[in-house]
Write a structure and sequence with these properties.
The protein has about 450 residues and is an alpha+beta fold. The chain is about 15% helix and about 30% strand. It has helices at about 30-40, 55-60, 100-115, 185-195, 225-235, 300, 395, and strands at about 5-10, 20-25, 85-90, 120-125, 130-135, 155, 165-170, 175, 180-185, 265-270, 275-280, 280-285, 295, 310-315, 320-325, 325-330, 335, 340-345, 360, 365-370, 375-380, 385, 390-395, 405-410, 415-420, 420-425, 430-440. Bound molecules: ligand TQI and zinc ion (2 copies). Ligand TQI binds near residues 7, 153, 154, 191 and 212. It is found in: Secreted, Extracellular space, Extracellular matrix.
Length: about 450
């Protein structure tokens, strides 16, 4: 389910308007509040996750007040095929058209894209193809059952391993080569756009515009907007040098694999009962209610934060403090509190401390432990000052956890200190290291 890329609806809450605004993983793990937050961030509203009056007002504007970005878009993360020869295979045909007709129509729909990019499509008749195509009714093995006649006609997975690229047509539709029923060419051309990495376009004349318009297939060429969209991913056919330079991607670093045994993180913390793990520009949230993991860019959750060294929640004041270099910022929920960033010298660090490696608030003592190189500092939250006698050596104060800590968090009464890919589970009041774990045991990887 989470592999199907779909479209998030900005205005899905208003009864009269239904506009898709920007691509996202809609079935993903976002809660309603997450969706609202994303929308609020997008429209430059205060990010509250609540349906407040400002948000309602923007939603009520025609097209959510959305005017200027009318063009193609790609899926989040910009998935695409990393090769130019792409195989496809039809495993289940419709009974509405002959096999030959289906093969011809599908080849013609793919040709729209191979005409304008270096991509080559090869039909195979056995084994696993990149794009596996089938006509099936109702449930068909991917958690997105079709809905009988009308409604959803087809769907496609964005590029990737496994189901990536796979394209399914609802056999309960009447598939045609005319303007009656569902024209297979039109729908296939649209779905193959998704299978190649195009999300919906804002431009009405685009093939990827999310309403069905019959077009006469003979002599049909890919509309300009879709052409630009697919060429931005794969380059232009024929003129090798006119291939657009690999665009500076907003997320240029490859995504870390959370299930890698060597997975390590920059920071971790419990916030409102959910665990958050930070690595480079990304944050994984492990839901306490169902254990599932979702990932986001940190900046999409806490505006203005790209990378973090340490994070902790101080529940008593309902704040989250985020540290990077010699500065920190405070947030309530996703909202930045005014007056930040501030220098970490406010906690009583000398200027020789230019960053902290990790921080954890120990609810049991109401102290926050800061880790800097091989030393530990203890900050008394109630008194608002650093405890006397610190810093101390980590290996003396917390024996068994090693001499360095790159992330620390509390969960269900235990403390966890990570160092590289490993972590120690620690019982604070008994001052005992209990067991060693791999970081990725939190990551829902079996
Ligand atoms: N199927 C939707 C579509 O392809 C399913 C869907 C929504 C989707 N968002 C997606 C699939 C993102 C992949 C990625 O848009 S549909 C049209 C339209 C459909 C819709 O059956 O509703 C066409 C199929 F909207 F353009 F008319 C074909 Cl052409
Ligand atoms: Zn399907
Ligand atoms: Zn679509």
């Amino acid at each position: 389910l989470k592999h199907i890329q779909a479209v998030l609806l900005c205005c899905f809450l208003t009864r009269t308007r239904f506009f898709t605004i920007f691509p996202d993983y809609s079935f993903s793990l976002d809660s309603f509040e997450d969706t609202l937050r994303k929308m609020q961030e997008f429209f430059g509203l205060e990010v509250t996750g609540q349906l407040d009056s400002n948000t309602l007002e923007v939603m009520d504007r025609p097209r959510c007040g959305f005017t200027d970005v009318t063009r193609y878009s790609h899926f989040e993360g910009r998935p695409k095929w990393d090769k130019s020869i792409i195989t496809y295979r039809v495993t289940d045909y419709t009974t509405d058209l002959s096999h030959r007709e289906v093969d011809t129509v599908l080849a013609k729909a793919l040709k729209l894209y191979s005409d304008v990019t270096p991509l080559v499509f090869k039909k195979i008749d056995s084994g696993t193809a990149d794009i596996m195509i089938k006509f099936k009714a109702a449930a068909h093995g991917d958690f997105s059952p079709f809905d009988g006649p009308q409604g959803v006609l087809a769907h496609a997975f964005s590029p990737g391993e496994g189901h990536g690229g796979d394209t399914h047509f609802d056999e309960d539709e009447t598939w045609t080569q005319t303007s009656e029923g569902s024209n297979l060419f039109v729908v296939a051309a649209h779905e193959f756009g998704h299978a190649l990495g195009l999300a919906h376009s804002q431009l009405q004349t685009a093939l990827m515009y999310p309403t069905y318009q019959y077009v006469n297939p003979s002599g049909y060429k890919l509309p300009d907007d879709d052409k630009k969209g697919v060429q931005a991913l794969y380059g232009v056919r024929g003129t090798p040098d006119s291939r657009p330079k690999p665009q500076p991607r907003p997320t240029s670093e490859p995504l870390p694999d959370r299930c890698d045994r060597n997975f390590n993180f920059d920071a971790a913390t419990l916030i409102q009962g959910n665990l958050y793990f930070f690595k480079d520009g990304n944050v994984w949230k492990k839901s306490s209610s169902w254990g599932g993991i979702s990932m986001k860019k940190i900046s999409s959750v806490w505006a203005g934060i790209d990378k973090v060294d340490a994070v902790y929640e101080y529940k008593t004041n309902n704040v989250v403090r985020i540290f990077k270099g010699n500065q920190y910022r405070s947030f309530r929920g996703n909202a930045a509190l005014p007056g930040f960033p501030k220098s970490i010298s406010h906690f009583g660090f000398p200027s020789s401390v230019t960053k902290v490696d990790a921080a954890v608030h120990v609810s049991f003592t109401s102290k926050t432990l800061f880790f800097v190189n091989n030393k530990l500092w203890s900050y008394d939250e109630r008194r608002g000052r650093m405890d006397r006698g610190y810093p101390k050596f980590i290996h003396r104060e917390l024996p068994g956890i090693g001499s360095r800590v790159d992330a620390a968090f509390e969960n269900r009464g235990y403390l966890y200190f990570t160092n590289g890919p490993r972590q120690t589970e620690y019982h604070y009041s008994r001052r005992r290291a209990l067991r060693k774990l791999l970081n990725n045991r939190w990551m829902d990887c079996e």
